[in-house]
Amino acid sequence: MNRVLIINTHHPYPSSGGALNAALTDLARAHLESKGYELRVTKVVDGYNAREEADKHVWADVVIVQGPVNWMSFPWSYKKYQDEVYGALGGILYDGDGRHREDPSLHYGSGGKALGKKYMLSLTYNAPREAFDDAEQFLLRGKGVDDMFLPSHAAFRFMGMEPLETFVCYDVIKNPDIENDFARYREHLDRLFD
After folding, report:
1. pTM of the prediction?
2. Cβ distance 34 to 193 under 8 Å?
3. How far apart are CA 192 and CA 62, in angstroms?
4. Nearest residue to 108 (alpha-carbon basis) of 150, 154, 151
5. Model confidence pLDDT, tens digit, residues 117-175
6. Distance of CA 186 to CAs 29, 31, 64, 70, 94, Å?
7. Helix, strand, coil proportions of the chain in percent (round to 5)?
């Protein structure tokens, strides 16, 4: 895992200019470069070339997706990025959907060719930590962060990539603890990237 691609998915939002996600992107870049990793960074909102982004995914051993959670998911501009870039990876990081004509009901999503590659989600939430993994909580009724991000995990699994532990900054608007979040992120990166 020597080559890391970081994708900053922040899209301007009325209550957020993207400073936190930019800072987390910069922190990860500097921290991993200091450990000897090669880094490439994409900021989706600045525009991109789908073919060049596909090439970055082929180059990378690990993809870190850094983003805010807007309405229970990444911003729409990252979904557009996925449609364009991951579509361009067909035949490279995945070979169809993995099914065979003999029994097309089996093994959907098993055509990934990106074996050995990994990915990590790094998320910023307005929600407090207590909103997750607690059946008594109103919205998620016991579901966790990774449950909410099943579509993102499935997209990477479709390509054959394996997850690294998700990192989350909670309650970043109403009750921020940013310095502690930065310290936790450094520890998280140290644990995953030795």
Report:
1. 0.93
2. no
3. 11
4. 154
5. 999 999 999 999 999 988 998 988 888 999 999 999 999 999 999 999 999 999 999 99
6. 11, 7, 14, 24, 32
7. 40, 20, 45
